[in-house]
Write a structure and sequence with these properties.
The chain is an alpha+beta fold and 408 residues long. It has 2 domains: 202 residues, Neurotransmitter-gated ion-channel ligand-binding domain (Acetylcholine Binding Protein, Chain: A, Distorted Sandwich), CATH 2.70.170; 145 residues, Methane Monooxygenase Hydroxylase, Chain G, domain 1 (Up-down Bundle), CATH 1.20.58. The protein is 37% helix and 23% strand. The protein is built from 7 helices and 12 strands. The strands form 2 sheets. Strands 1, 2, 3, 5, 6, 7, 9 and 10 form an 8-stranded mixed beta sheet that branches. Strands 4-8-12-11 form a 4-stranded antiparallel beta sheet, with no helix packed on it. α3 packs antiparallel against α4, α4 runs antiparallel to α5 and α5 packs antiparallel against α7. It is rod-shaped. It starts with a helix and ends with a helix. It holds the Pfam family Neur_chan_LBD. Keywords: Membrane, Signal, Transmembrane, Transmembrane helix. It is found in: Membrane.
Length: 408
């Protein structure tokens, strides 16, 4: 009996020692797992955000929260088909949050802390003329700087896609003026006062081969709507862009000048040359290809057809008339006409001829040039054909000069 009690006592003692060792190991592991102590920033963040609601404006309902804004643009793009302007850069928002204040001496003289912007209140400033539909997430989630006096500075990377009324009249030498209109989505001017801070900045990171930013200006507007007595404030950034035309000059302008020279050279071919009609056909084909290119590159904007497109379409029409003139001149210079030139056309040729270098004795019956004249009737028809050809050349020169002045 004594031995049994002694054995039982040894078993209990062993179990107690095992439990003590296990508890000691667990306690040691739990103590060793914590590798850092809370920093002043941890304690400050915990104290500041206690009972803090980021969805509520950090001020009494009868007080105004002032938000200062400014923009820095690093890149721009224009989509002519969708009539939209894309702006990349960053915005700068500054406001005061009375709930986020502390005494630096109580937190190791820490006077600024960086916080996730989703856990503090932010002004609901969005782009009014947003081209992204219901997607109004324009800003990246970068940290906000909170200072001990309650000042909050938030500089998020920004991507705006705004509708822009494009004027393509002077394409490809056009200037475009677009606007970025931002404001609060839910607060009126009595609750949220949006102001203009620093002047807009331009810091191009990658040189844009097509657009150059000429000017960016900021305007603050206060609007009263018929439905409401409260003012609504917005900041409008007016962005002026100039198209870089070097590439378009090589693709569009130089070929247009070549087409003009080809169209005028048709009138210098021999009057009886059938190549005049062939040349006009080649010119018409070239113009048609360019018009197809314009249809693919440019938007169909009512009333704002680019002048260069009007020039090419009018040149196509002039080429058609030039073909008709070439056919008429070709028929006039054929020999063995049965009917003489009508008297009215004779008078026209006599009046206009001297102005285009065709005198009354411009042809003689002994001429052996490109035009064969076998009778006085053929002479009259050929002379009138020459007058018509040269007069058409002068008229076309005037038309092309006017078109080139306005379109090219």
């Amino acid at each position: 009996m004594g031995k049994s009690c002694e054995n039982l006592w040894h078993i209990k003692a062993g179990l107690l020692c095992f439990l003590a060792i296990a508890i000691a190991q667990v306690s040691t592991q739990s103590d060793g797992g914590q590798k850092w102590a809370p920093t002043w920033a941890d304690r400050l963040k915990k104290d500041l955000l206690k009972d803090y609601d980021p969805s509520l404006r950090p001020s009494q309902h009868y007080n105004v929260t002032t938000v200062e804004t400014s923009i820095t643009i690093t890149h721009v793009e224009i989509n002519e088909i969708k009539s939209t302007l894309s702006v990349y850069g960053w915005m700068k928002f500054t406001w005061n949050d009375p709930k986020l204040t502390w005494n630096p001496a109580d937190y190791g003289y820490l006077d600024v802390v960086r916080m996730d912007p989703t856990i503090v209140w932010r002004p609901d400033v969005v782009l009014y003329n947003n081209a992204g539909g219901s997607d109004n997430h324009h800003y990246g989630d970068t940290n906000a700087l909170v200072y001990n006096g309650g000042k909050v500075l938030w500089v998020p990377p920004t991507e705006y896609h705004a509708f822009c009324e494009l004027n393509m009249r002077l394409w490809p030498f056009d200037y475009q003026k677009c606007t970025l209109k931002i404001g609060s989505w839910t607060f009126d001017g009595y609750k949220l006062n949006i102001t203009v801070g620093d002047d807009p900045q331009i810091e191009i990171l990658v040189k844009n081969s097509e657009w150059r930013i000429v000017k960016v200006a900021a305007e603050r507007h206060t609007t009263f709507y018929p439905c409401c007595t409260e003012p609504y404030i917005d900041i409008t950034y007016n962005v002026t862009l100039q198209r870089q035309s070097d590439t378009h000059r090589a693709i569009v302008v130089i070929p247009a000048m070549v087409i003009i020279m080809f169209a005028l050279s048709v009138f210098w071919l021999p009057l009886q040359a059938g190549e005049r009609i062939v040349m006009n056909g080649i010119i018409a084909l070239m113009i048609t290809l360019f018009l197809i290119y314009f249809a693919q590159q440019l938007p169909a904007i009512s009333g704002l057809t680019p002048l260069i497109v009007i020039f090419f379409s009018n040149t196509l029409l002039l080429t058609a008339f030039s073909t008709i003139i070439s056919v008429l001149v070709l028929n006039m210079t054929k020999p063995k006409h049965e009917r003489s030139l009508p008297s009215m056309l004779k008078r026209v040729a006599g009046c206009v001829g001297p102005f285009v270098g065709v005198g009354k004795k411009h042809f003689s019956f002994s001429d052996k040039g490109n035009v064969t004249i076998e009778s006085s009737i053929d002479h009259e028809w050929t002379k009138f054909g020459l007058v018509l050809n040269r007069l058409s050349f002068l008229v076309y020169c005037v038309i092309f000069v006017i078109c080139a002045f306005y379109a090219i």
